[in-house]
Amino acid sequence: MATIERADAAAQAQGGIPTRSQIEDFLYLEAALLDEWKLDEWLALFAEGATYDVPTTRAEDDADSADQLFLVADDYARLQHRVRRLKKPGAHSEWPRSRTAHSITNVRIVAVEGDELLVRSLFITYRAKNDVTDCYFGHHIHRIRAGADGLKILSKRSMLDMSSLRPHGRVSIIV
């Protein structure tokens, strides 16, 4: 059986746009890597130069970190640093690490431009730590490039559709 990455690469080599099913499998892989704390493999899903951001709970989808406060606004170098830090005992808020369960649903390809796809999906992420379980929910907006090397994330925006972060107060995991 071919791996997801090989199947994606084969589809791109044939010049095709990935199907929704292939995109879903890619997003499910991303979620599984986060739940399994395989952060280096998760980072490998991103193209160099990619971004990852989480605006505040009241922000609009098109919010800009240049003029609004974001909870997370990582360029690729900062994303690499985040992964390195989360894997160390010095990451006090995540050591020992939280247990998470990322659920992805309602995956839609909302636009295609050349080899780039704009994908919107809903998420629920459960986080358990120190006998407390938190729930984060919202929607992701991924820009994904389909190339000869398979699918790569160009940008990921996680929009928290919660009215506030209470009782959590923070986002110390990757949603």
From TrEMBL:
Keyword terms: Dioxygenase, Oxidoreductase
GO molecular function: dioxygenase activity
Family matches, as Pfam families: Ring_hydroxyl_B
TM regions (residue ranges): none
Superkingdom as given in the UniProt entry: Bacteria
Claim: Acetylation is one of the keywords in the record: no
GO biological process, one term: 3-phenylpropionate catabolic process
Key word Oxidoreductase present: yes
Recorded family membership: Belongs to the bacterial ring-hydroxylating dioxygenase beta subunit family.
Protein name, per record: Aromatic-ring-hydroxylating dioxygenase subunit beta
